[in-house]
Amino acid sequence: MICSLFCPKILINEKAAQLIAKGGGYMKKLIIFQSFLVTFLFITSPAFAQSADVSKVQTFIQNIIQVLVTLSGLVAAGFFVWGGFRYITSSGNPESLDGAKKTISFSAIGLVVVLGAFVLSNIVTQLATTAFGAGQ
To answer: At what angle do helices 54-88 and 94-132 cross, to 10 degrees?
Structure first.
C-alpha cells in the first residue's frame, strides 16, 4: 500500500510506460494537447442566454399548432373523400358500406377533436396573455 502511494511508476499503465521509455513522445503530445485545451478554455468568450422574450415563444408555439391543425384538416378531408369513394363503390355490399360509414364518421370525430384542441389552445393562450401580460 505504501509503495502504491510513493511509487508513481506503478500507477502508469504499461503502454504509457513503454512510450515514455522510448523517448517521451507520449508526454510531449499530452503536454501540448493540455496546453491547447487550457488556452482554448481561457480564450473563448462565454455565451450568455438571450433575454426571455415570451412573445416569441408564444408565437412559435401558435404557428406550430396552426400548421398541425391545417395538416390534420387535410388528412380528415382525405379520409372524407376516401370514405365517400368507398361508399359510392360499395355496390350494395353491407360490409363495405359499413366500413365506408365508419371511415366517414371517424374522420368527422377526428376533425372535431382537432378543431376542439385548436380552440382550447387559443383560449389558453388568451388566458395566459391576460394573466402574465403581453410579451415585454
So the answer is: 170
